[in-house]
Amino acid sequence: MQLRLFMIGLLLAATPVFCTMPAEAPAREGILTGADQVNLYLPYLKGKRVGMVVNQTSIIGNKLSVDSLRTLGINIKAIFGPEHGFRGNASNGAEVGDEVDAATGIPIISLYGQKRKPSREDLQKIDIMVFDIADVGCRFYTNINTLRDIMESCAEAGKELVILDRPNPNGYVDGPILDMKYRSGIGQFPIPITHGMTIGEFAQMLNGEGWLKDKMKCKIKVIPVANYRHDMDYTLPVAPSPNLNTQQSILLYPSLCLFEGTIVSQGRGTRMPFTVLGAPALKGIFDFTFMPVSIPGMSETPLHQNETCYGLDLRNYDVTPHRKAGKVNIKWIMDMYKAYPDKSKFFDRSYSRQIGNIDGLAGTALFKQQIIAGKSEEEIRKSWEPGLSAYKKMRKKYLLYQ
Questions:
Q1: Where would one find coiled-coil regions in this protein (predicted)?
Q2: Which residues partner with 99 through β-bridges?
Q3: Quick one: pLDDT at residue 221?
Q4: Is 381 exposed, middle or buried (0-12, 13-18, 19+ CB in 10 A)?
Q5: Residue 162's closest CA among 7, 8, 38?
Q6: How far apart are CA 265 and CA 276, in angstroms?
Q7: Which residue from 226, 293, 347, 402 has the highest number of Cβ atoms inside 10 Å of its Cβ?
Q8: Residue-range domains of the chain with CATH
């Protein structure tokens, strides 16, 4: 036992070998992720053939959990990679193929290529599955879709799923509830824009609300985060995807991703995605400029590529008031629409060439109609009821943290 604890200490002190968030990120004092509490789950995995749903955010201390657990004698038979791939270097929406991890020789089965969930054949090779991926707490971020797919596959194959829980940096609840008529790859569940749950809590809700196929139930074991509350500030130690590469972009993402359904760029094709907004047609209205270009691994064909965009620089914007109030900022999209010269193009997906239309992103057709009609922010927010309050009440049943 002493030797094992010594080895765990070495792992937690290991030098990182991958890109982390900026050095100025505040310390995460006292919070221990599920993965960091190795003593709680290591005995559970010993002697079993283990599959792992992981990416670059799956760390123990400063080392990838796959490498750490192999060092501790865990028999990892397969890695299942979500959107952006196991190493997190694939662009948004880009298909990722199967491969063999060069560092470990472990087969990597892509869940963002030819298939979205493990096959029964894949699961015959393992005894237990581990899910360990950082999430950013938004309906249109695809990790919760992957979680649902993994739970369904495990339920069908009779495999248990161990979830190493991690904090949600956007731990508040806000936005319209998804009208299931607009269900798509960027919205799969009747939840608001920010769902206010960790992956472990969301897994409990998937089971409890019967949202798995045929209302199946997946056997899950959640290793909870220690010393954590939803209202705590938390900085992810590793960028969760190529275009969420700073803490500021992660905190602005719930608000700025709505612009994916407009003609306005959110900075894809720059080194500052989801911290700026702009379009060529806004010249003369805004002074700040940026130019999207093709960046392999981030955005190969960004909106307004090689064009000067005029708009807002939000890199130093204080997100604290909105976060503490538990609100997505919808004022930016309302104001940008008012400022845009040709309003007929603002929400036209044929012009924007983006990943989703505004109805799918907002979860309702009413949001676009309200903006076009010039409704106030108060009127728009009022229309999210009673659905938002009903969701908050339902959510309480599944919370692991205050």
A1: none
A2: 108
A3: 98
A4: middle
A5: 38
A6: 8
A7: 347
A8: 2-223 (3.40.50.12170), 247-364 (no CATH)
Rounded distance, CA 377 to CA 330, Å?
7
Cα 281 to Cα 275: distance, rounded to the nearest angstrom: 19
What tokens appear for 292 in the block? 């999207």
**Contact between 186 and 358 (Cβ < 8 Å):** no
Which two tokens mark 155? 């339920």
* Residue that is written with structure tokens 């998937």 in the block: 206
CB neighbours (10 Å) of residue 300?
A: 13
Q: Are strands 309-313 and 288-290 parallel, antiparallel or unpaired?
A: antiparallel
Q: How far is CA 129 from CA 45, 50, 86, 221, 262, in A?
A: 9, 6, 16, 10, 39
Is-contact 290 270, C-beta < 8 A? yes
Q: Is 238 helix (H, G, I), strand (E, B) or coil?
A: coil
User: Could you report the per-residue pLDDT of 86-136, keeping only the tens digit for each?
Assistant: 654 444 445 556 778 877 889 999 887 778 899 999 999 999 999 999 999
How far apart, in whole angstroms, are the C-alpha atoms of residue 21 and residue 85? Answer: 18
For residue 212, which amino acid is it? L
Per-residue confidence band for 7, with pLDDT thresholds at 50, 70 and 90 = very low
Give the C-alpha separation, 147 to 79, whole Å: 14
Q: Distance (Å, rounded) from C-alpha 188 to C-alpha 363?
A: 10
The DSSP string of 198-209 is -HHHHHHHHHHT
What are the pLDDT digits (tens) for 27-64? 355 999 999 999 999 999 999 999 999 999 999 998 99
Question: Whole-angstrom Cα distance, residue 383 to residue 391?
Answer: 14
Q: Are 301 and 314 in contact (CB under 8 A)?
A: no
Q: Which of 138, 136, 222, 258 is nearest to 188 (CA)?
A: 138
Q: From CA 144, how far away is CA 131, in angstroms rounded?
A: 11
Strand partners, 80: 53, 109
d(CA 121, CA 243) in angstroms, rounded, equals: 33
Q: Cα–Cα distance between 391 and 398 in angstroms, integer?
A: 12
Of the two residues 9 and 70, the one the predictor is more confident about is: 70
